[in-house]
Every structure is written in C-alpha cells, then in structure tokens.
Design brief:
The protein has eight helices and four strands, in the order αββαααβααβαα. Strands 3-2-1-4 form a four-stranded mixed β-sheet. β1 and β2 form a beta hairpin. α1 packs antiparallel against α5. The longest helix is centred in the first third of the chain and has 39 residues.
C-alpha cells in the first residue's frame, strides 16, 4: 500500500510539472518564432518541428522555408553527393533526387536552415526537463522505469498540445506543417507520424505520408 501511495504521489508531481511547464514552452516557442520570422524575411515557411532527444530532456524549434530547402536540395544534386547517395539508396530514388522530383530533406529537421538560438528560452526549458528527469533517478529501479515512461509520454503530449494551441493562436499559419521529432530513436517515426496526423489537415498529412513511405521505405539501415 505504501509503494502504491508513493507511486501515485510521484505520478501526480509529474503531471503538475508538465502542467506548469506548458505555458513556459508556449512562450518560448512564440518568442523563438518571432525571431525566426525576422531571420527568414520574405522566405516562405512550410514546416516547423519541435525536436527532442531519446530521453526527452532537450527541446528546440526547427523551421524551414521552401527557399532554404531548394538550396539544400541543390547540394544533394552535385556529382559528388549523388555518388555518396548511391551507396545507401536505390538508383531509382537517386535519380529522383538528381532531377529534383524528390527531396530527402523536406521533413528532416537536422537538415533545416533555421532554429532557436543557443541562448533561447527553449534552452531554459531544456534545463528544467533535465533537472526533472534527474530527480526521477532517486526512485527505485521498478518505479523509475514507470516514471520515466510517464515522463516521456507526458512530454510528447505536452509538446504536441503546445503546437496545437499556438496554431490556433496563429503563431503557426495553416500553411505550415507542424510535427514533433525525436532524434536517433526507434520511436522517432511513430512520434512524428502521430503528431503530424493530429496537428495538420488530412491533405497535409497525406503529403507527408507519401514522402514518408518513399523515404523510410527505401532507405537502408
């Protein structure tokens, strides 16, 4: 009974932590977008992603424009780069990259041109996430595993909710494809897919799905 009470108390504390953190994330993303829009100028923003790591203790905003994407795709169309791509991708897909009919970079935040700076408010949020996750290590092993899973689930739910709230507010226009991204983790594709479906129109999601089927279906491990 005592263990059950502790578990409930710790779970409640996590819920309260994310409830309190959500407004801070919203403000941080709002302010980051204001700066990024100044930086992009007249370029056309087509996508934005809130990116985390496999432990969900870091968070940054990545944004890309059609113009920046075109420049990045040109790099993939050089003779040297196409030769590299042929080591990992089927010839048919490499030819699509070469003629510009498929972009390897459209939905890959690591390849995007814009993000919040190193001194951004999202960095402060990341420190709070790290500190909170570190506190979980005080629990015994069984409880830690359960709390860590809850931490990550609530993190993704909170960040997705932030995107939804800010889209409703107009921070992200209807033309911007929004999603949550996780770097270097086997759950990354699933997290992106679920958040993309929740946050965007069926038409936008269908476009992402078409790209995703080619990218993830054709890429090699």
């Amino acid at each position: 009974m005592k263990d059950s009470t502790i578990k409930t108390d710790e779970q409640t504390k996590l819920e309260q932590f994310f409830l309190g953190l959500k407004p801070a994330i919203e403000n941080a993303v709002r302010h980051a977008m204001e700066e990024i829009r100044q930086e992009t100028g007249t370029e056309h923003i087509y996508s934005a992603a809130l990116v985390t790591d496999s432990d969900c203790v870091t968070l940054f905003l990545a944004v890309n424009t059609e113009e920046a994407l075109a420049e990045r795709d040109k790099e993939d169309q050089t003779k040297e780069r196409l030769a590299e791509l042929r080591e990992y991708w089927p010839e048919e897909l490499v030819e699509q990259v070469a003629d510009g009919s498929f972009s390897l970079n459209r939905y890959i935040p690591d390849e995007w041109a814009y993000s919040d700076g190193t001194d951004s408010e999202l960095n402060q949020v990341s420190r709070q996430l790290y500190d909170q996750d570190d506190k979980l290590s005080d629990a015994d092993d069984d409880l830690y595993d359960e709390l860590h899973e809850q931490f990550q689930e609530q993190f993704v739910e909170t960040v997705t909710g932030v995107f939804g709230a800010l889209r409703a507010e107009g921070v992200f226009g209807p033309e911007i494809f929004c999603f949550v991204s996780m770097s270097d983790d086997e759950r990354a594709q699933e997290i992106t897919d679920i958040s993309a479906q929740q946050l965007n129109t069926p038409e936008q999601y269908e476009q992402y799905q078409t790209w995703s089927e080619i990218f993830f279906g054709e890429s090699y491990d």
